[in-house]
Amino acid sequence: MLGGEPDVAKIVVGIALAIAITSLLDGSGLSVYSALPLIPLFVLFAWLDRIPMRELGFTYGPVRFYGLALAHPLYVIGALAVAARVSGAIDIAALNASKAAQNIALLSAVTFVMAILTEEGFFRGWLWAALARKGASPLATLLATTVAFVVWHISFVFLSSDFHFASAQIPVFFLNATLLGLIWGLLRFGSGSVLVSSAGHGLWNGLTYVLFGVGSGVGALGVKDAGMFGPEVGLLGACLNASVLVLLSILLRRRLGGYSSALLAAA
Hints:
By secondary structure, the chain is an all-alpha fold. The chain is built from 13 helices and no strands. The protein starts with 7 loop residues before the first helix and ends with a helix.
């Protein structure tokens, strides 16, 4: 277990450490730092497994996949904003468009850089490559990395004092987390790059958290009905994310082969 090819025990230990350390930080009121331990864990296990950078997803990837990665949050957040506007759920009386745009750009850029070595690097970089080396099918790798990604977020919901979720929104949050994990996993699979999935992850966080807020919070658009319009805790957000998952599954059906039918059925 101390080097060379990945083994099941090492994979389990890596995931368990990530969840345990993050849970400890979330439970200690240090949620702002809870993703940072993924950096040394990613570096350590990638080194122990001797996985080349390209296998880890550290390659540029085709340009068209960056378009898909960025189109996803633009489509979902844009559609939610329009729906909220039509229904009268938006309160933009105090909206500072210039400041909101600056915050979106800053948060998107910071998340993109950080995600490469944290969530994307660990789950869709090292874990993805380790499972693939063990002979896991593309669908099994996609599902396993998504499950690990979702479980890692449990402490964020139940232990963190920085973020608040209404009880009814918690199941929807985990549904959306699953859909997002699958979407970013498909982007990583299709492009071979965690830079692509990190680009989508970055813009998603920037648009979501600035415009709609975190959890049951209220963002710059003043939308209070998060249970309907929240990108991560709203039912409409889940429907829109599911539609993106279906589209990506169709676009990548040749690469996925027979696995695409199973994924479409699940979506």
